[in-house]
Amino acid sequence: MIRHTHWNETLASLAAGLIFGVGLVASGMTQSEKVLAFLDLASAWDPSLAFVMGAALVVAFPWFALSAGRAKSVLGLPMRLPSARDIDRKLLAGAAAFGVGWGLVGLCPGPALVALATGSPKAVLFAVAMLAGMGLYEAIVRKDELKTA
Amino acid sequence: MAIDWTHFTPMSALAGGALIGIAAMLLAALTGRIAGISGIVGGLLRPHPGEIGWRVAFVVGLMSAPVLYALLGDRVDVQIDASNAMIVAGGLLVGVGTRLGSGCTSGHGVCGLARRSPRSVAATLTFMAAGFFTVFLSRHVFA
């Protein structure tokens, strides 16, 4: 029974990932130039990214509103949605650093992974640096946790 | 502000965005998880038991998108104009920043906003502002 659920979870995740990836490619968000054209307000502006986020929100918003407070997913798994509500320095500093990196290259994590799969050397370089950054964060957090433990 | 009508693609943006929304909804509805790419990948770097399979599956699915396009005879072109130094700096900042800030464009910008999370609103406004500011500096001040 548990094993059965486990495979359902894996398949559902695989399908969601694929649909997400196709959405990123279809919307043009894997083209860094298109993202940068959205972030460049001082030139002729390409609002496409706002339409991508807007459409995603219009689709997802009603479902999240209707399912708020659910304890179990459709597959019977516990809902593990973030519950933190406080806006702290860590959140804002991280978001600011992410925004700077995003503005430098025009890739955020999703498109970076899709681009990586194409084998483009520059995309590989970006993905390696991104994973190194995530690893760096883990190393620092782990060190902090050991200190406080 | 002038709209760049030659490059603006409203229909494909809406269609692709809707797919992203469907994917986020599907993952949450079926597995109870948030489709935040940085969180899904970051969680693989320090994996907890039972937390590996679904993350790997999601990433494999995501990275299969260009393969699916290739099978259908369509190439996914990736053009990155940034210099190698900017790519390394940008990648490191995106990696550290998304983990420190608990999310990226998908986790905060789509799922978090859809859940009306105050943290995600603050994070999205912050990374958008930082992105606008960085592009302004790199394209119009230090260009």
Question: What's the short story on this structure?
Answer:
Chain A is mainly α and about 150 residues long. Chain A is about 70% helix and about 0% strand.
- Quickly count the helices of chain A: 6
Unreliable stretches of chain A (pLDDT < 50, length at least 5) are: none
Q: Could you state the order of secondary-structure elements of chain A as H and E?
A: HHHHHH
The major pleated sheet of chain B works out as: none
Number of domains of chain B: 1
Structural class of chain A: mainly alpha
The greatest interface here is: A-B, 116 and 110 residues
Task: Please describe what this structure looks like.
The complex is a heterodimer of chains A (149) and B (143). Chain A has one domain. The model of chain A has no long low-confidence stretch (mean pLDDT 92). By secondary structure, chain A is mostly helical. In chain A, 72% of the residues lie in helices and 0% in strands. Chain A is built from 6 helices and no strands. Chain B is mainly α and 143 residues long. Chain B has one domain. Chain B is 69% helix and 0% strand. In chain B, helix 2 packs across helix 3 and helix 5 packs antiparallel against helix 6. Chain B is globular. The mean pLDDT of chain B is 95. The interface between A and B is large, with 116 and 110 residues.
Outline the secondary-structure elements.
The complex is a heterodimer of chains A (149) and B (143).
Chain A: H1 2-27, H2 32-39, H3 48-67, H4 89-105, H5 109-117, H6 121-148
Chain B: H1 10-31, H2 37-45, H3 53-71, H4 84-100, H5 107-114, H6 118-141
